[in-house]
Amino acid sequence: MVDVLVSIDVKGSQKIATGKVREIFDAGDGRMLIVTTDRISAFDVVLPDPIPYKGYVLNLLSLFWFDMIGDIVPNHVVTSDVDKYPPPFNSDPRLSGRSMLVRRAEPLPVECVVRGYLAGSGWKEYKEKGSICGITLPAGMVESQRLPEPLFTPSTKESPGTHDENIDFAKVASIIGRRNAERIRDLSIEIYRKAADFALKRGIIIADTKFEFGLVDDELIIIDEVLTPDSSRFWSKDTFMPGMSQPSFDKQFVRDYLETLDWDKRPPGPHLPAGVIEKTVKKYIDAYEMITGSKFPFN
User: Are 257 and 140 members of one domain?
Assistant: First the structure.
């Protein structure tokens, strides 16, 4: 039987928020419980069809990376062991593998995007301006080409239903202060370098990714998800070929399908064919297994 979770309520608990993919509960003592569902969004619209096992992949991969980058920056994870959750969460088997108990942080209102390759909105901006987020790049670059150095190309963190906007470093500094801006820039690039080097040895190119940071008692920590197929662009090292769009292990596959439809990118989103869902499931699980070197434990 396919394991799918579209939404969740836990009896005896208070839900704080429902995001595009995650549901967040108050866990007391300055903590929250984050549950990752199998919902999928594209173009800021939650689609009507879930992707089975997706929540497990996002949650487990985030935990894997949080552990790996712990020597660079602290994170918000308290535990992912359901038996160690406070009541009533410790008696709900649906949470196993899909959730984490975290410290409650004050999120910084900036998306920390790091690009190692020229793709997506970065490629579009480069074609128009020869730069990304105010950073001038060499002339004559082609789509998917590796950048001379990883770039910190932040964006605004907009409310649901609105699109994030690329901004330059000066704008980040004006929003959160220069000291915090420099810290999240330097941390983002350091994390990306470490993760990209590791993933490349496992056959995956991390073309770009985004991080979120927050403050807990004035301590800067990394929060949300990290280096997942939802927050990153994963390519196969074996099939990589600059000068064209690359096949990916992430939800870009779903976006590419949606681009073929006569849809205005407004709710409600269209249904996904079974074949697209099945291929997306495989891409997410393949990404998990290649990066972690472990067999996916839930299918």
Answer: yes
**What is the rounded distance in angstroms from the CA atom of residue 94 to the CA atom of residue 251?**
24
Asked whether the beta carbons of 166 and 112 are under 8 A apart, the reply is no
Number of domains the chain is built from: 2
- Return the SS3 of 239: coil
Query: What is the extent of the structural domain holding 87?
Result: 14-104
- If one counts every other C-beta atom within 10 angstroms of the C-beta of residue 267, the result is 11
CATH code for the domain of 255: 3.30.470.20
CA distances from 6 to 2, 38, 47, 51 (A): 13, 6, 11, 9
Per-position DSSP letters for 65-89, written without gaps between them:
HHHHTTTTS-BSEEE--GGGSPTTG
Q: Does any domain span residue 162?
A: yes
Same domain (yes/no): 130, 253 = yes
Q: What is the pLDDT of residues 30-42, one digit of tens each?
A: 999 999 999 999 9
Residues 162 and 92 in one domain: no
**Confidence grade of residue 137 (pLDDT, cut at 50, 70, 90):** very high
pLDDT of residue 134: 84
Residue of 231, 220, 156, 165 lying closest to 192 (CA atoms)? 231
- My answer on whether 70 and 100 are in the same domain is yes
3-state secondary structure 104-171: CCEECCEEEEEEEECCHHHHHHHHHHCEECCEECCCCCCCCCEEEEEEECCEECCCCCCCCCECCHHH
Query: Is the pTM higher than 0.90?
Result: yes
Pull the structure tokens for residue 132: 């990304």
Residue 197, phi then psi, degrees to nearest 5: -65, -40
